[in-house]
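Dear colleagues,

As part of the handover before I leave the project, I'm documenting each prediction I ran so the next person doesn't have to rerun anything. This entry is a single chain, and its sequence is reproduced below.
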Amino acid sequence: MVKAASKKEALVRIARRDSMAMWKSVAIRLLAVVLSLILSGILIYAIIKENPLKVYESMWNGAFGSVRRTWITARDTMMLLCIAVGLAPAFKMKFWNIGAEGQILVGGIATAACMIYLKSLPAWLLFICMMVASCVAGAVWGLLPAVFKAKWNTNETLFTLMMNYVAIQLTSYFVALWENPYGSNTVGVINQGTEEGWFPPVFGQEYMLNVIIVMVLTVGMFIYLKYSKQGYEISVIGDSQNTARYAGISVKKVIIRTMLISGAICGLSGFLAVSGASHTISTSTAGGRGFTAIIVAWLAKFNTFTMIAISVLIVFLEKGAIEIASKYNLNDYVSSMITGIILFFILGSEFFINYKLIFRSKSKEAA
């Protein structure tokens, strides 16, 4: 009987880890990055017969090769980080807000409307109006699925995803309404020449204000989630809604409140995109960042400070991929493959951080 039982025992079992030392988790992630670079290097050499180190140097130059490129990388990093910070409270509550793309777009629409119709206001007042309008628009876009979830327990993943398509069509409508020149099917650069509603340079840097706003949000969200009563309620609901109800927490109220915050911050990202970067609005304003930010938030385990490093890495990979595609005459598929390999290894490293492999011992096998 013992021999029969031992034959049924698996050679390898997977068990969840209780915890792991910080240095070990960092080492695993670094090892994943190194292995991904090695595999990417093999792929690069097989395709273009170039030294992979030269290709990686080109990737670095694409993101940080000049002061201008460095600030553009910083600008795009702040945009991605802002969205991830907005998703953090909803995801920590296990409310799967897949609608960041739509919330960004409606925030961008509100910002563009202020730039077009309120450009006669003083610069400081226009800035406040744009910020408030973008937050309100994003909050309303987040409120709708939250109310349906709280009242009727609808599927928030599908609801928020469908809201993205509504926002895209709404953006198309306003682009047609504001198209300049007429018949161009594009809004063009809003207030070009006069620059009403554009972010002003701070300390001589065009995108410094983007960095300041997002870093304040990052610190504020970290404090909110970790040390506030509302952050504690979000954590409890994320662990178990029944436990939250037993503790006297109003689950419906917290869901609605949290999605208002999440949507408002994602809407603010639209403000950063329109007023602080492109100075225009289109259906590509979000640019898929709402989905990429999900990876950032998930990998960081909703720690907003960790999100900074992950956002930098992802934007660096995007800029580097564009650079090597241009320099070595590669198509977008090859550069996307390299980015995908690196992200796959990083995501895979989380498995070994959260789980351990238990091999059948030789003594049991002998018995």
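The chain has a mean pLDDT of 89. Residues 73-308 form one domain.

All the best with the project,
I.
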